[in-house]
Amino acid sequence: MSLTPGTPAGQRKVAVAGVALSDCGRVDEATPYALHAQAARRALVDSGLDRSVIDGFASACLGTLAPVEVAEYLGLRPTWVDSTAVGGATWEVMAAHAADAIAAGHANAVLLVYGSTARADIKAKRRTANLSFGARGPLQFEVPYGHSLIAKYAMAARRHQHQYGTTLEQLAQVAVQARANAAGNPDAMYREPITVDEVLSGPMIADPFTKLHCCIRSDGGCAVLLVAEDHVPDLAKRPVWVLGSGTAVSHTTMSEWDDFTVSPAAVSGRLAFQRAGVCPAEIDLAEIYDAFTYMTLVTLEDLGFCAKGEGGAFVEQGRLLRDGELPVNTDGGGLAACHPGMRGLFLLVEAVRQLRGEAGPDRQVRKPGGALPQLAVASGTGGWFCSSGTVVLGAG
C-alpha cells in the first residue's frame, strides 16, 4: 500500500500496529543505540509491516540531535519528526503528537522508540547518578539547597499525608501490589513478593520514601508503531485504537506549584477522556508512571478513579492487582519490572499487550466472565509532576 503524506484525508483513525521491548533488566553488553534498534525491529515484526512504510519518527534524549542521530542509526529518513522531551511523560506526549499528525494526513506510520543503559552505565562507571536536572534558569534558586528530584516527590507525599491523612502503610501498598503483579511477568527484574513491613523497614532514601518506595534502575528499550487506519488490513494482529489523548505542563520550581497534592494528570486525563468519549469508570486497566509510590496514588486521584484525598483508601484494598477492581501497572511497573531512565513508552506497550490478550496466563487481565479488557489508559508523568501525557486506548 502506498500513501502520500499531506494528502487530504480528513481525520483518519489511528491504530497501534506493533509494540515490542528490547532486552531489558540487566543488559551489560549493549549500547543505547543497539537497544533502540532491537526494539524497533521487533515492533516491525510484531506489526507485520515493512520498514518502508515508516515516514514518521519520534525519539528523545539520545545523541546530539535527537531524533536525527537515532533515525540515521536505524537507517530511516522520516518526513515527520518529534523530539519533545518532557521527562517521563515524553512518550505519551509524543504519541499524542503522532496521532494528531496521522489523523491530519501529515504522516502515515510513526515509530516511537526508546532505549537506555542507565543501570549498566553506572555499574561500569560511565556516569554517576543525577542529583538535579541543572542549575540554570529558575532551577538555580533550588539547586544550592540540595533539592533533588526525589526530595521534591517526598515533600509532595508528606503534604498529601498532612492534608488527607494518607499513611505510609497505604503508600507501601502501591509497592506491594506492583511486586505482586510483577510475579506474573517473566521479564520483570524483581518478582519476589514483598510486605508492607518490608517496605517500611527498608533504608531511608528521602523521608518518607524508603528504598522500596522508589523505582528500580534498569537497562532496556521499547518501541511503538502508530499507523493510519489505511494500514490496518495489512497488520499481522488486530489493531488497538488511539481513542483520545491529552497533555499538560504545570511548573518547574516548587514555589510555582499551586498544590503539591495535584499533578498535571488532572488536566491531561480530563482532556484524554473527553476526547475519547469515555469516563474513568469505563476503564479496564491503567498503566501509570510510578517512579515513586506517591506518583501512582496521586495520579489515580487526578485521573478520576477516586476523589482527591481518597487515594490512600483506594490503593489499600488490593484494587491495583491483576484481578483487582482496577489493575494498575500489570507488568510490575517501574517499581518492579523495569525503569531505564524514562518509562513512559513502556506504559503504552503493556497497555496494548493487555488489550490484545497477549500478556500471558499469569498476568493477563480479564473482565468479570473472562472477557478481555476493552479500554486502557496510559498516563506518563515528567519531572516532579511538571508534565503529564495521557492516552486512552481501545481494543480493535
TrEMBL record:
<dbReference type="InterPro" id="IPR016039">
    <property type="entry name" value="Thiolase-like"/>
</dbReference>
<dbReference type="Pfam" id="PF22691">
    <property type="entry name" value="Thiolase_C_1"/>
</dbReference>
<feature type="domain" description="Thiolase C-terminal">
    <location>
        <begin position="246"/>
        <end position="394"/>
    </location>
</feature>
<protein>
    <submittedName>
        <fullName>Acetyl-CoA acetyltransferase</fullName>
    </submittedName>
</protein>
<dbReference type="GO" id="GO:0016747">
    <property type="term" value="F:acyltransferase activity, transferring groups other than amino-acyl groups"/>
</dbReference>
<dbReference type="InterPro" id="IPR055140">
    <property type="entry name" value="Thiolase_C_2"/>
</dbReference>
<dbReference type="InterPro" id="IPR002155">
    <property type="entry name" value="Thiolase"/>
</dbReference>
<keyword id="KW-0808">Transferase</keyword>
